[in-house]
């Protein structure tokens, strides 16, 4: 019989899952650094804990992404419209330093931009981030020099966001910290991290997911509200959380999260909303008035139609498609044989928004990377999707090079760019399909095969269902089919491995 001390250690400090032991691609890739980890390795007992290793890897790969922008830093942003595309190093950041009035000391949302009678078209918290970077940028020297420094300052701040994402993802699932290497090593993450300011919202969302996994509903709500004040997409996570809490009867926790999100969002937005209502509303009116743009299947349709849809029609159709997708995700959550994991539904709802939206900027992939790593921590599927996203990343810049190079037509023509869009769409749909399969067939879910229920689900982890529909109302199938220690569910839903006598 194991001692009481051994049992306590197993329950409170479960051994981390080793990807090189359960994932063929991870095991093969580990040969580059000495091969799979051995069974006698002392994980987490030295300074090189998973959190520190993954954070350092994320920072290193982020730095490589900065190096990839070097041709633009050396002049392509300023002296050649097409060369910043042929080198695939474009970034909004240096262009918007002057283009949105930061070089002139204008105050976002309060001052109109350069006499154009327009305001900054970003959510309030992102505007604050941009303004802080402008404060840290010296106002002397040439405008090109100031723009380069502004990009470097923003890159440093965004690198901190990348480190936060890596740390939060590593700690969200205690037994699977190494899954966060998917995020740290994601090529599309490095390539797109400094195109725009999306990493701020992604970092706040990752921190919110960590808080929810620890059962801290109010902190989750506050952080999610702040993330929504930086970018609109994080609010979508409240939808999956609603149906999961409905199925588990956890209305109090959902209400707490909702109040926290609404309160923090209002705290950030209300002052600007009251003092500069026209500037505050620019982001929302711009989103509605914006026509069909790069990366969406709507662009493929419009380029192939003799009479493209009007913007209002696309807005309506995109909204209807998103609502149908939301109903589908809700139906999946309430009828699945086991309650889906929160990360799975969070990934699906954000992916649905990306797939149905009228624009897909290349940096939007950052929204999905942490959610994908938690929803489907399988290297093969993740890398297939990443390959599609890298293909799209190259495709859009080559297309812009083609359209900006005049009669030279250097780059990718329209048909080629449309193919790149289709590749991006198919890659995202593929990852959605395997996540849905995991939900319908829980025995295929690599997280649940190890005996866990919903490690990212906080109070949902191990909770009993109180409302189900269809097949879910029947006696559930066995939680998982795997070879290993048996599993018991504790009062808070955490799993504890116990050895047999």
From TrEMBL:
Where along the chain is composition biased (Basic and acidic residues)? Answer: 15-24
The UniProt keywords, alphabetically, are:
Cell membrane, Membrane, Transferase, Transmembrane, Transmembrane helix
Molecular functions (GO terms):
hexosyltransferase activity
Region (Disordered) location: 1-25, 476-501
Return the InterPro entries for the record: GT87, UCP010361
Composition-biased stretches (Polar residues):
492-501
| Annotated TM spans | 47-67, 149-169, 181-212, 218-244, 314-336, 342-361, 382-402, 417-440
Give a single Pfam family match.
Answer: GT87
Localization terms from the record: Cell membrane
Q: Which GO terms describe its cellular component?
A: plasma membrane
Bilayer topology reads:
Multi-pass membrane protein
Principal location listed in the UniProt entry: membrane
Family membership: Belongs to the glycosyltransferase 87 family.
Protein's recorded name: DUF2029 domain-containing protein
Native source organism of the sequence: Streptomyces sporangiiformans
């Amino acid at each position: 019989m194991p001692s009481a001390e051994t049992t306590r250690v197993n329950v409170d400090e479960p051994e981390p899952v080793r990807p090189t032991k359960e994932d063929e691609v991870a095991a093969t890739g580990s040969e580059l650094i000495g091969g799979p980890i051995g069974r006698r390795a002392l994980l987490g007992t030295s300074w090189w804990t998973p959190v520190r290793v993954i954070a350092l890897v994320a920072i290193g790969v982020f730095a490589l992404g900065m190096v990839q922008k070097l041709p633009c830093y050396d002049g392509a942003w300023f002296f050649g419209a097409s060369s910043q595309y042929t080198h695939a190093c474009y970034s909004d950041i240096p262009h918007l330093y002057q283009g949105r009035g930061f070089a002139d000391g204008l105050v976002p949302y309060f001052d109109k931009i350069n006499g154009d009678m327009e305001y900054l078209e970003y959510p309030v918290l992102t505007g604050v981030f941009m303004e802080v970077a402008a404060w840290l940028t010296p106002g002397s020297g040439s405008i090109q020099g100031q723009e380069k420094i502004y990009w470097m300052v923003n890159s440093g701040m965004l690198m901190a966001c990348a480190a936060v994402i890596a740390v939060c993802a590593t700690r969200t699932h205690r037994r699977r910290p190494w899954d966060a290497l998917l995020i740290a090593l994601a090529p599309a993450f490095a390539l797109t991290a400094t195109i725009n300011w999306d990493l701020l919202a992604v970092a706040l969302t990752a921190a919110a997911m960590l808080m929810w996994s620890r059962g801290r509903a109010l902190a989750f709500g506050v952080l999610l509200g702040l993330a929504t004040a930086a970018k609109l997409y994080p609010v979508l996570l409240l939808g999956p959380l609603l149906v999961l809490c409905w199925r588990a009867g956890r209305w109090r926790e959902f209400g707490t999260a909702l109040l926290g999100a609404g309160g923090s969002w209002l705290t950030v937005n209300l002052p600007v909303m009251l003092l500069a209502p026209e500037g505050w509303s620019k982001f929302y009116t711009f989103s509605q008035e914006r026509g069909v743009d790069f990366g969406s299947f709507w662009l493929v349709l419009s380029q192939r139609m003799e009479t493209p849809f009007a913007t209002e029609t696309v807005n309506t159709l995109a909204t209807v498609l998103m609502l149908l997708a939301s109903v589908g995700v809700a139906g999946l959550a309430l009828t699945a044989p086991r309650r889906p994991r929160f990360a799975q539904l969070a990934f699906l709802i954000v992916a649905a928004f990306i797939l149905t939206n009228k624009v897909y900027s290349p940096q939007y992939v950052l929204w999905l990377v942490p959610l994908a790593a938690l929803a489907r921590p399988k290297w093969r599927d993740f890398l297939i999707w990443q390959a599609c996203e890298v293909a799209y990343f190259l495709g859009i810049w080559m297309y812009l090079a083609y359209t900006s190079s005049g009669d030279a037509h250097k780059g990718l023509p329209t048909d080629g760019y449309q193919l790149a869009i289709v590749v991006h769409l198919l890659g995202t749909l593929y990852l959605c399909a395997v996540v849905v399969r995991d939900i319908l067939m829980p025995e295929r879910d690599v997280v649940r095969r190890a005996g866990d229920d919903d490690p990212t689900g906080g109070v949902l982890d191990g909770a009993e269902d109180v409302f189900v529909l269809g097949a879910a109302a029947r006696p559930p199938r066995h939680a998982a089919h795997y070879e290993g220690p048996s599993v018991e569910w504790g009062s808070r839903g955490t799993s504890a491995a116990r050895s047999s006598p």
